[in-house]
Amino acid sequence: MTRTAELLADDPLWLILIKVVLIFGFLVVMTLLTIWAERRVIGRMQNRPGPNRAGPFGILQSLADGLKLAFKEDIRPVLADKWVYFLAPVISATPAMVSFSVIPIAPEVTIFGETTALQLVDLPVGLLVVLACASIGVYGIVLAGWASGSPYPLLGSLRSAAQVISYEIAMGLSFVAVIMYAGTLSTSGIVAAQANGWFALLLPFSFAVYLVSMVGETNRAPFDLPEAESELVGGFHTEYSSLKFALFFLAEYINMVTVSALATTLFLGGWHAPWPLSMIGDGVLNTGWWPVLWFLGKTLLFLFVFVWLRGTLPRLRYDQFMHLGWKVLVPLSFVWIIAVVIIRAVRNEDAITTQQFLIGGGIVVVVLLAATFLIPDKKPPQDHEVPHSGSDFPVPPLDLQVPPAPPKRTPVRSGAPDAGDSGAPDEGKEAPRGDV
Protein backbone atom coordinates (compact mmCIF):
# COMPACT_ATOMS: atom_id res chain seq x y z
CA MET A 1 0.00 0.00 0.00
CA THR A 2 1.35 3.39 -1.00
CA ARG A 3 1.71 6.35 1.34
CA THR A 4 -1.24 8.08 -0.34
CA ALA A 5 -3.47 5.03 0.09
CA GLU A 6 -2.53 4.84 3.79
CA LEU A 7 -3.44 8.50 4.35
CA LEU A 8 -6.77 8.14 2.54
CA ALA A 9 -7.64 4.99 4.48
CA ASP A 10 -7.44 6.95 7.75
CA ASP A 11 -9.70 9.80 6.59
CA PRO A 12 -12.69 10.37 8.89
CA LEU A 13 -16.18 10.61 7.44
CA TRP A 14 -16.41 14.39 7.80
CA LEU A 15 -13.20 14.84 5.81
CA ILE A 16 -14.45 12.56 3.04
CA LEU A 17 -17.65 14.63 2.80
CA ILE A 18 -15.60 17.83 2.61
CA LYS A 19 -13.55 16.39 -0.25
CA VAL A 20 -16.70 15.35 -2.12
CA VAL A 21 -18.16 18.85 -1.79
CA LEU A 22 -14.85 20.45 -2.81
CA ILE A 23 -14.55 18.26 -5.92
CA PHE A 24 -18.14 19.03 -6.96
CA GLY A 25 -17.66 22.75 -6.37
CA PHE A 26 -14.31 22.74 -8.18
CA LEU A 27 -15.80 21.07 -11.26
CA VAL A 28 -18.79 23.43 -11.39
CA VAL A 29 -16.62 26.53 -10.94
CA MET A 30 -14.15 25.30 -13.54
CA THR A 31 -17.07 24.77 -15.94
CA LEU A 32 -18.25 28.36 -15.49
CA LEU A 33 -14.75 29.76 -15.87
CA THR A 34 -13.98 27.58 -18.90
CA ILE A 35 -17.11 28.73 -20.72
CA TRP A 36 -16.24 32.36 -19.99
CA ALA A 37 -12.60 31.90 -21.00
CA GLU A 38 -13.62 30.08 -24.18
CA ARG A 39 -15.78 33.01 -25.29
CA ARG A 40 -13.12 35.56 -24.44
CA VAL A 41 -10.26 33.66 -26.06
CA ILE A 42 -12.14 32.83 -29.26
CA GLY A 43 -13.36 36.43 -29.42
CA ARG A 44 -9.74 37.56 -29.18
CA MET A 45 -8.68 35.08 -31.87
CA GLN A 46 -11.44 36.17 -34.26
CA ASN A 47 -11.04 39.90 -33.58
CA ARG A 48 -14.43 40.43 -31.97
CA PRO A 49 -15.53 41.20 -28.41
CA GLY A 50 -16.40 38.42 -26.02
CA PRO A 51 -18.82 38.74 -23.09
CA ASN A 52 -18.20 42.11 -21.39
CA ARG A 53 -21.50 43.14 -19.78
CA ALA A 54 -22.30 40.77 -16.89
CA GLY A 55 -19.73 41.56 -14.22
CA PRO A 56 -16.17 42.81 -14.70
CA PHE A 57 -14.78 41.54 -18.02
CA GLY A 58 -18.06 39.60 -18.41
CA ILE A 59 -16.94 37.05 -15.83
CA LEU A 60 -20.51 36.53 -14.57
CA GLN A 61 -21.87 35.74 -18.04
CA SER A 62 -21.63 31.97 -17.51
CA LEU A 63 -23.55 32.26 -14.24
CA ALA A 64 -26.23 34.34 -15.99
CA ASP A 65 -26.53 31.70 -18.72
CA GLY A 66 -26.92 28.98 -16.10
CA LEU A 67 -29.72 30.89 -14.38
CA LYS A 68 -31.38 31.46 -17.75
CA LEU A 69 -31.34 27.73 -18.51
CA ALA A 70 -32.89 26.96 -15.12
CA PHE A 71 -35.89 29.21 -15.84
CA LYS A 72 -36.47 28.18 -19.47
CA GLU A 73 -39.55 26.14 -20.32
CA ASP A 74 -39.00 22.41 -19.93
CA ILE A 75 -40.38 20.74 -23.06
CA ARG A 76 -40.78 17.00 -23.59
CA PRO A 77 -41.65 15.69 -27.07
CA VAL A 78 -44.87 13.70 -27.41
CA LEU A 79 -43.05 10.66 -28.84
CA ALA A 80 -40.32 10.68 -26.18
CA ASP A 81 -39.88 7.81 -23.74
CA LYS A 82 -40.62 9.61 -20.47
CA TRP A 83 -38.29 7.88 -18.00
CA VAL A 84 -35.38 7.27 -20.35
CA TYR A 85 -35.66 10.84 -21.62
CA PHE A 86 -35.39 12.05 -18.01
CA LEU A 87 -32.55 9.73 -16.92
CA ALA A 88 -30.28 10.23 -19.94
CA PRO A 89 -28.82 13.62 -18.83
CA VAL A 90 -28.22 12.22 -15.34
CA ILE A 91 -26.42 9.18 -16.75
CA SER A 92 -24.27 11.48 -18.88
CA ALA A 93 -23.28 13.91 -16.09
CA THR A 94 -22.74 11.53 -13.13
CA PRO A 95 -19.78 9.47 -14.52
CA ALA A 96 -18.06 12.70 -15.55
CA MET A 97 -17.93 13.76 -11.90
CA VAL A 98 -17.09 10.30 -10.53
CA SER A 99 -14.02 9.90 -12.75
CA PHE A 100 -12.35 12.93 -11.13
CA SER A 101 -12.30 11.14 -7.76
CA VAL A 102 -9.11 9.21 -8.62
CA ILE A 103 -7.11 12.28 -9.74
CA PRO A 104 -4.34 13.28 -7.25
CA ILE A 105 -4.29 17.07 -6.87
CA ALA A 106 -1.59 17.34 -4.19
CA PRO A 107 0.39 15.06 -1.80
CA GLU A 108 0.17 15.43 1.98
CA VAL A 109 -1.72 18.48 3.26
CA THR A 110 -3.33 19.38 6.56
CA ILE A 111 -7.07 20.13 6.71
CA PHE A 112 -8.38 21.18 10.15
CA GLY A 113 -5.49 19.38 11.83
CA GLU A 114 -5.97 16.14 9.86
CA THR A 115 -3.13 15.01 7.57
CA THR A 116 -4.46 13.69 4.28
CA ALA A 117 -3.87 13.72 0.52
CA LEU A 118 -5.85 15.90 -1.87
CA GLN A 119 -7.46 12.92 -3.57
CA LEU A 120 -10.78 11.28 -2.84
CA VAL A 121 -9.74 7.68 -3.39
CA ASP A 122 -6.54 5.92 -4.53
CA LEU A 123 -7.45 2.68 -6.27
CA PRO A 124 -4.93 0.14 -7.61
CA VAL A 125 -6.82 0.31 -10.94
CA GLY A 126 -7.46 4.06 -11.07
CA LEU A 127 -6.91 4.33 -14.83
CA LEU A 128 -9.50 1.65 -15.49
CA VAL A 129 -12.01 3.65 -13.44
CA VAL A 130 -11.51 6.64 -15.75
CA LEU A 131 -12.02 4.47 -18.86
CA ALA A 132 -15.10 2.85 -17.32
CA CYS A 133 -16.65 6.23 -16.51
CA ALA A 134 -16.01 7.42 -20.06
CA SER A 135 -17.72 4.30 -21.41
CA ILE A 136 -20.75 4.71 -19.16
CA GLY A 137 -21.11 8.40 -20.04
CA VAL A 138 -21.80 7.59 -23.68
CA TYR A 139 -24.85 5.57 -22.63
CA GLY A 140 -26.48 8.83 -21.57
CA ILE A 141 -25.90 10.28 -25.03
CA VAL A 142 -27.15 7.18 -26.85
CA LEU A 143 -30.25 6.89 -24.66
CA ALA A 144 -30.97 10.61 -25.09
CA GLY A 145 -30.96 10.26 -28.86
CA TRP A 146 -33.13 7.14 -28.80
CA ALA A 147 -35.63 8.43 -26.20
CA SER A 148 -36.19 11.76 -27.98
CA GLY A 149 -38.33 10.13 -30.67
CA SER A 150 -36.67 12.17 -33.43
CA PRO A 151 -34.32 11.09 -36.26
CA TYR A 152 -31.69 13.81 -35.85
CA PRO A 153 -30.93 13.11 -32.16
CA LEU A 154 -30.79 9.41 -32.99
CA LEU A 155 -28.19 10.01 -35.71
CA GLY A 156 -26.15 12.17 -33.33
CA SER A 157 -26.23 9.50 -30.63
CA LEU A 158 -25.10 6.80 -33.06
CA ARG A 159 -22.23 9.00 -34.16
CA SER A 160 -21.25 9.47 -30.54
CA ALA A 161 -21.23 5.72 -29.92
CA ALA A 162 -18.97 5.15 -32.91
CA GLN A 163 -16.76 8.02 -31.82
CA VAL A 164 -16.29 6.76 -28.27
CA ILE A 165 -15.56 3.21 -29.43
CA SER A 166 -12.98 4.43 -31.94
CA TYR A 167 -11.09 6.89 -29.76
CA GLU A 168 -11.38 5.08 -26.44
CA ILE A 169 -9.39 2.22 -27.95
CA ALA A 170 -6.66 4.65 -28.97
CA MET A 171 -6.78 6.29 -25.54
CA GLY A 172 -6.42 2.94 -23.79
CA LEU A 173 -3.45 2.07 -25.99
CA SER A 174 -1.78 5.36 -25.06
CA PHE A 175 -1.97 4.26 -21.40
CA VAL A 176 -0.05 1.03 -22.00
CA ALA A 177 3.42 2.56 -22.30
CA VAL A 178 2.78 4.76 -19.24
CA ILE A 179 1.71 1.72 -17.22
CA MET A 180 4.83 -0.18 -18.26
CA TYR A 181 7.13 2.62 -17.13
CA ALA A 182 5.24 3.40 -13.92
CA GLY A 183 4.63 -0.24 -13.02
CA THR A 184 1.15 0.50 -11.67
CA LEU A 185 -2.38 1.47 -12.65
CA SER A 186 -2.71 3.76 -9.64
CA THR A 187 -2.81 7.45 -10.55
CA SER A 188 -0.81 8.47 -7.46
CA GLY A 189 1.80 5.84 -8.32
CA ILE A 190 2.09 7.19 -11.86
CA VAL A 191 2.66 10.72 -10.50
CA ALA A 192 5.31 9.41 -8.10
CA ALA A 193 7.08 7.64 -10.98
CA GLN A 194 7.54 11.02 -12.73
CA ALA A 195 9.52 12.61 -9.90
CA ASN A 196 12.68 12.59 -12.06
CA GLY A 197 11.14 13.18 -15.49
CA TRP A 198 7.81 13.63 -17.21
CA PHE A 199 6.40 10.87 -19.39
CA ALA A 200 5.52 13.45 -22.04
CA LEU A 201 9.25 13.69 -22.81
CA LEU A 202 9.94 10.00 -22.39
CA LEU A 203 6.87 8.78 -24.32
CA PRO A 204 6.09 11.54 -26.84
CA PHE A 205 4.03 9.39 -29.21
CA SER A 206 1.77 8.14 -26.39
CA PHE A 207 1.33 11.77 -25.34
CA ALA A 208 0.35 12.80 -28.88
CA VAL A 209 -2.13 9.93 -29.23
CA TYR A 210 -3.73 10.84 -25.91
CA LEU A 211 -4.06 14.49 -26.93
CA VAL A 212 -5.97 13.53 -30.08
CA SER A 213 -8.05 10.90 -28.27
CA MET A 214 -9.10 13.20 -25.43
CA VAL A 215 -10.51 15.69 -27.95
CA GLY A 216 -12.43 12.90 -29.67
CA GLU A 217 -13.70 11.53 -26.34
CA THR A 218 -15.19 14.86 -25.32
CA ASN A 219 -16.99 15.54 -28.64
CA ARG A 220 -15.11 18.79 -29.09
CA ALA A 221 -14.14 20.51 -32.35
CA PRO A 222 -12.84 19.36 -34.77
CA PHE A 223 -14.47 16.08 -33.62
CA ASP A 224 -17.88 17.48 -32.62
CA LEU A 225 -19.76 15.24 -35.05
CA PRO A 226 -22.49 14.16 -32.56
CA GLU A 227 -23.50 17.83 -32.22
CA ALA A 228 -23.02 18.84 -35.86
CA GLU A 229 -25.33 21.84 -36.19
CA SER A 230 -24.88 22.06 -39.95
CA GLU A 231 -26.52 18.68 -40.64
CA LEU A 232 -28.06 17.47 -37.36
CA VAL A 233 -29.63 20.68 -35.98
CA GLY A 234 -28.02 20.12 -32.57
CA GLY A 235 -27.33 16.41 -32.41
CA PHE A 236 -28.38 14.19 -29.55
CA HIS A 237 -29.66 17.06 -27.36
CA THR A 238 -31.84 18.72 -30.00
CA GLU A 239 -35.07 17.91 -28.12
CA TYR A 240 -33.76 18.92 -24.68
CA SER A 241 -34.20 22.25 -22.92
CA SER A 242 -33.93 23.85 -19.48
CA LEU A 243 -32.01 21.93 -16.79
CA LYS A 244 -31.83 18.70 -18.80
CA PHE A 245 -29.89 20.50 -21.53
CA ALA A 246 -27.80 22.17 -18.83
CA LEU A 247 -26.76 18.72 -17.54
CA PHE A 248 -25.47 17.75 -20.99
CA PHE A 249 -23.68 21.07 -21.20
CA LEU A 250 -22.20 20.53 -17.73
CA ALA A 251 -21.12 16.97 -18.58
CA GLU A 252 -19.19 18.12 -21.66
CA TYR A 253 -17.16 20.72 -19.79
CA ILE A 254 -16.59 18.50 -16.76
CA ASN A 255 -15.26 15.85 -19.14
CA MET A 256 -12.91 18.47 -20.55
CA VAL A 257 -11.60 19.25 -17.06
CA THR A 258 -11.27 15.55 -16.23
CA VAL A 259 -9.33 14.53 -19.33
CA SER A 260 -7.11 17.61 -18.92
CA ALA A 261 -6.39 16.65 -15.30
CA LEU A 262 -5.71 13.07 -16.40
CA ALA A 263 -3.28 14.30 -19.07
CA THR A 264 -1.50 16.30 -16.36
CA THR A 265 -1.37 13.20 -14.16
CA LEU A 266 -0.12 10.80 -16.82
CA PHE A 267 2.29 12.90 -18.85
CA LEU A 268 3.17 16.20 -17.12
CA GLY A 269 4.17 14.95 -13.69
CA GLY A 270 0.86 15.64 -11.96
CA TRP A 271 1.32 17.99 -9.03
CA HIS A 272 5.14 18.08 -9.36
CA ALA A 273 6.59 21.53 -9.95
CA PRO A 274 8.06 22.06 -13.43
CA TRP A 275 11.80 22.32 -13.88
CA PRO A 276 13.67 24.41 -12.71
CA LEU A 277 11.21 25.28 -9.93
CA SER A 278 11.45 21.70 -8.69
CA MET A 279 15.15 22.28 -7.88
CA ILE A 280 14.51 25.23 -5.53
CA GLY A 281 15.11 24.49 -1.87
CA ASP A 282 15.57 20.75 -2.36
CA GLY A 283 12.00 20.31 -3.62
CA VAL A 284 10.25 22.57 -1.13
CA LEU A 285 7.79 23.66 -3.84
CA ASN A 286 6.54 20.06 -4.06
CA THR A 287 5.26 20.12 -0.48
CA GLY A 288 2.29 21.68 1.27
CA TRP A 289 -0.24 23.55 -0.85
CA TRP A 290 2.21 24.55 -3.60
CA PRO A 291 1.44 21.43 -5.71
CA VAL A 292 -2.17 22.60 -6.10
CA LEU A 293 -0.86 25.60 -8.04
CA TRP A 294 1.23 23.48 -10.41
CA PHE A 295 -1.61 21.02 -10.96
CA LEU A 296 -4.09 23.78 -11.80
CA GLY A 297 -1.63 25.53 -14.11
CA LYS A 298 -1.02 22.40 -16.18
CA THR A 299 -4.74 21.58 -16.32
CA LEU A 300 -5.57 25.10 -17.51
CA LEU A 301 -2.95 24.71 -20.24
CA PHE A 302 -4.82 21.73 -21.69
CA LEU A 303 -8.14 23.55 -21.40
CA PHE A 304 -6.64 26.38 -23.43
CA VAL A 305 -5.69 23.82 -26.10
CA PHE A 306 -9.36 22.76 -26.29
CA VAL A 307 -10.40 26.37 -26.85
CA TRP A 308 -7.59 26.95 -29.33
CA LEU A 309 -8.66 23.98 -31.45
CA ARG A 310 -12.27 25.10 -31.51
CA GLY A 311 -11.32 28.57 -32.66
CA THR A 312 -9.01 27.45 -35.47
CA LEU A 313 -9.92 24.05 -36.95
CA PRO A 314 -13.00 23.15 -39.03
CA ARG A 315 -15.04 20.05 -38.37
CA LEU A 316 -13.76 16.84 -39.96
CA ARG A 317 -15.79 14.81 -42.41
CA TYR A 318 -17.12 11.57 -40.95
CA ASP A 319 -14.94 9.35 -43.13
CA GLN A 320 -11.84 11.42 -42.26
CA PHE A 321 -12.70 11.13 -38.59
CA MET A 322 -13.06 7.32 -38.65
CA HIS A 323 -9.97 6.97 -40.84
CA LEU A 324 -7.86 8.85 -38.30
CA GLY A 325 -9.05 6.69 -35.43
CA TRP A 326 -8.95 3.22 -36.94
CA LYS A 327 -6.28 3.47 -39.65
CA VAL A 328 -3.79 5.87 -38.05
CA LEU A 329 -3.97 6.05 -34.26
CA VAL A 330 -4.74 2.41 -33.45
CA PRO A 331 -2.16 0.72 -35.77
CA LEU A 332 0.62 3.17 -34.93
CA SER A 333 -0.13 2.76 -31.22
CA PHE A 334 0.44 -0.98 -31.53
CA VAL A 335 3.73 -0.38 -33.33
CA TRP A 336 4.75 2.11 -30.65
CA ILE A 337 3.94 -0.33 -27.83
CA ILE A 338 6.05 -3.03 -29.47
CA ALA A 339 8.93 -0.57 -29.85
CA VAL A 340 8.67 0.47 -26.20
CA VAL A 341 8.66 -3.15 -25.06
CA ILE A 342 11.77 -3.92 -27.11
CA ILE A 343 13.59 -0.82 -25.85
CA ARG A 344 12.74 -1.58 -22.24
CA ALA A 345 13.88 -5.17 -22.60
CA VAL A 346 17.21 -4.02 -24.04
CA ARG A 347 17.64 -1.37 -21.33
CA ASN A 348 16.96 -3.89 -18.57
CA GLU A 349 19.88 -5.90 -19.89
CA ASP A 350 22.11 -2.79 -19.62
CA ALA A 351 22.98 -3.13 -23.28
CA ILE A 352 22.50 0.57 -24.13
CA THR A 353 22.93 3.86 -22.30
CA THR A 354 20.27 6.48 -21.62
CA GLN A 355 21.58 8.68 -24.44
CA GLN A 356 21.40 5.81 -26.91
CA PHE A 357 17.90 5.04 -25.67
CA LEU A 358 16.72 8.62 -26.30
CA ILE A 359 18.28 8.62 -29.76
CA GLY A 360 16.63 5.30 -30.59
CA GLY A 361 13.27 6.57 -29.33
CA GLY A 362 13.62 9.68 -31.50
CA ILE A 363 14.31 7.52 -34.54
CA VAL A 364 11.22 5.43 -33.81
CA VAL A 365 9.08 8.59 -33.58
CA VAL A 366 10.45 9.90 -36.88
CA VAL A 367 9.75 6.58 -38.59
CA LEU A 368 6.19 6.51 -37.25
CA LEU A 369 5.53 10.06 -38.42
CA ALA A 370 7.01 9.30 -41.83
CA ALA A 371 4.79 6.22 -42.11
CA THR A 372 1.78 8.35 -41.26
CA PHE A 373 2.34 11.23 -43.66
CA LEU A 374 4.48 9.85 -46.49
CA ILE A 375 3.17 6.37 -47.26
CA PRO A 376 0.12 6.63 -49.56
CA ASP A 377 -3.02 5.13 -48.12
CA LYS A 378 -5.00 4.47 -51.29
CA LYS A 379 -4.02 2.53 -54.37
CA PRO A 380 -4.36 4.29 -57.75
CA PRO A 381 -7.68 3.63 -59.53
CA GLN A 382 -7.64 0.83 -62.10
CA ASP A 383 -9.15 1.05 -65.55
CA HIS A 384 -12.04 -1.27 -64.70
CA GLU A 385 -12.96 0.58 -61.51
CA VAL A 386 -15.78 3.08 -61.41
CA PRO A 387 -14.51 6.55 -60.42
CA HIS A 388 -15.81 7.93 -57.12
CA SER A 389 -15.83 11.23 -55.27
CA GLY A 390 -12.67 10.63 -53.23
CA SER A 391 -14.50 9.31 -50.17
CA ASP A 392 -14.10 5.85 -48.67
CA PHE A 393 -17.88 5.48 -48.73
CA PRO A 394 -19.77 4.23 -51.82
CA VAL A 395 -21.30 6.77 -54.17
CA PRO A 396 -24.41 6.37 -56.37
CA PRO A 397 -23.80 4.65 -59.73
CA LEU A 398 -23.48 6.74 -62.84
CA ASP A 399 -26.91 5.75 -64.18
CA LEU A 400 -28.55 7.55 -61.25
CA GLN A 401 -27.29 10.95 -62.27
CA VAL A 402 -29.80 13.79 -62.65
CA PRO A 403 -31.08 13.90 -66.27
CA PRO A 404 -30.63 17.10 -68.27
CA ALA A 405 -33.46 19.63 -68.31
CA PRO A 406 -35.93 19.35 -71.25
CA PRO A 407 -35.71 22.01 -74.02
CA LYS A 408 -37.83 25.10 -73.68
CA ARG A 409 -40.98 25.50 -75.78
CA THR A 410 -40.78 28.16 -78.54
CA PRO A 411 -43.72 30.61 -78.90
CA VAL A 412 -45.51 30.79 -82.31
CA ARG A 413 -47.71 33.43 -83.99
CA SER A 414 -51.45 33.43 -83.50
CA GLY A 415 -53.94 33.58 -86.38
CA ALA A 416 -54.34 31.75 -89.67
CA PRO A 417 -51.21 30.47 -91.37
CA ASP A 418 -49.88 32.28 -94.41
CA ALA A 419 -50.00 30.75 -97.85
CA GLY A 420 -46.26 30.31 -97.92
CA ASP A 421 -46.18 28.72 -94.51
CA SER A 422 -45.89 25.04 -94.02
CA GLY A 423 -48.89 24.87 -91.77
CA ALA A 424 -47.10 25.90 -88.56
CA PRO A 425 -49.12 28.00 -86.07
CA ASP A 426 -48.61 31.77 -86.01
CA GLU A 427 -46.12 33.42 -83.63
CA GLY A 428 -47.51 34.23 -80.21
CA LYS A 429 -49.72 31.17 -80.00
CA GLU A 430 -48.39 28.17 -78.18
CA ALA A 431 -48.56 24.85 -79.90
CA PRO A 432 -50.51 22.05 -78.22
CA ARG A 433 -48.56 20.44 -75.43
CA GLY A 434 -48.30 17.18 -77.25
CA ASP A 435 -46.88 18.80 -80.44
CA VAL A 436 -43.81 20.41 -78.82
Automatic annotation (TrEMBL):
- Classify the main location: membrane
Look up the signal peptide feature and give its range.
Answer: none
Keywords assigned by UniProt, alphabetized? Cell membrane, Membrane, NAD, Oxidoreductase, Quinone, Translocase, Transmembrane, Transmembrane helix, Ubiquinone
Q: Which reaction does it catalyse?
A: a quinone + NADH + 5 H(+)(in) = a quinol + NAD(+) + 4 H(+)(out)
* Compartment list: Cell membrane; Membrane
User: What Enzyme Commission number(s) appear in the record?
Assistant: 7.1.1.-
- Give the residue ranges for region: Disordered: 381-436
- Compositional bias, Basic and acidic residues, is annotated for 426-436
Q: Which GO terms describe its molecular function?
A: NADH dehydrogenase (quinone) (non-electrogenic) activity
Question: Which positions, given as ranges, span the membrane?
Answer: 12-36, 83-105, 125-148, 169-192, 198-216, 245-268, 288-309, 321-345, 357-375
State whether keyword Translocase applies.
Answer: yes
- Domain of life per record: Bacteria
Membrane topology summary: Multi-pass membrane protein
Q: What does this protein do?
A: NDH-1 shuttles electrons from NADH, via FMN and iron-sulfur (Fe-S) centers, to quinones in the respiratory chain. The immediate electron acceptor for the enzyme in this species is believed to be ubiquinone. Couples the redox reaction to proton translocation (for every two electrons transferred, four hydrogen ions are translocated across the cytoplasmic membrane), and thus conserves the redox energy in a proton gradient. This subunit may bind ubiquinone.
Subunit field text: NDH-1 is composed of 14 different subunits. Subunits NuoA, H, J, K, L, M, N constitute the membrane sector of the complex.
| Family, per entry | Belongs to the complex I subunit 1 family.
Protein's recorded name: NADH-quinone oxidoreductase subunit H
Q: What organism does the UniProt record list as the source?
A: Saccharopolyspora cebuensis
